[in-house]
Amino acid sequence: SDNNDNWEGGCTAVTKQFSNGHRVVGRNMDLNISNKCAYIVHTACDGKYKTIGTSYTFRDYSPDYEVARRDGISDEFSRILPFCCDDILNEKGLFVEVNMRNAECWPAGQDKFACSGTNPNSKQRVYMFGVSRYIAENCATVEEAVEYVKTLNVYSKDRYWNYCFMLADATGRYGILEIAQNKLFWNEGQQAQTNFYVTPELNAIQEYKIGLGRYNTVMDGIGNVKTEEDMLNLMKRVNYYNYI
Predict the structure, then answer these.
(1) Which of 3, 127, 129, 233 has the highest count of CB atoms within 10 angstroms of its CB?
(2) Residue 119 in contact with residue 152, Cβ under 8 Å?
(3) DSSP-derived secondary structure for the chain
(4) d(Cα 73, Cα 80) in Å, to the nearest integer?
């Protein structure tokens, strides 16, 4: 059905510029991992932009609350923690939001979205989940980010784990960057994303429109969002438990 949201929850993001010139992003990290730890990650590396981001959905590594309270953060996880950020904002006002597409890759025809590498001639090979970190530390604007990712050789994990990115910057520019089939697809002015491909040629061949119901909800409601509280209430309306 068009309301294909009965799938472990899911992520929703939408952006809007208010009348005072401020740009706000509404974000719903709606995953069934309530026993996992959440982190706020700050970076300040020489020659890179300072960043702040959230990390709590990397299922293969995130320890649960009880273990972290008892033993602290494991050495293995602490080493990779800065690279596991779902969403990142840098000091120049460039925001990057990460959104999964892996559910579209699991059914029959899973290789349709496989990504072994977008730029084999690049000296820098980057796992798709780490793209947000590279963008935030090296780019000041959406324009820079889109061009920068073209220089990387981006790949997905075991064909199944694809990610896409909402970008928004202090100049007012925004859109959705999708990566699949060893190619980059930039959707200028795309205001929201959930868990399905919005790029027309990818959208046409996917079997499931995971999150289409949530997408329709935020697009129907974003016109009435005038304040930060309005945005928060809109995100509450697309909570996973409203769909089961």
Answers:
(1) 129
(2) yes
(3) -TT---SSEEEEEEEEE-TTS-EEEEEEEEES-TTB--EEEEE--TTS--EEEEE---TTTPPBHHHHHHH-S-HHHHHHGGG--SEEEETTS-EEEEEE-GGGTSSTTGGGG--S-S-TT-S-EEEGGGHHHHHHHH-SSHHHHHHHHTTSEEE-BTTTB-EEEEEE-TTS-EEEEEEETTEEEEEET--EE-SS--SHHHHTT-S--TTHHHHHHHHHHGGG--SHHHHHHHHHHT-GGG--
(4) 11
Residue type, 83: F
pLDDT at 3: 47
- What global pTM score does this model have? 0.88
52: Cα separation from own chain's centroid: 15
Looking at residues 175-204, what average pLDDT do you find?
95
Give the integer Cα–Cα distance in Å for 155 and 163. 10
67 closest CA partner among 112, 95, 36, 88: 36
Q: What is the pLDDT of residue 181?
A: 92
Backbone angles phi, psi at 206, to 5 degrees: -80, 145
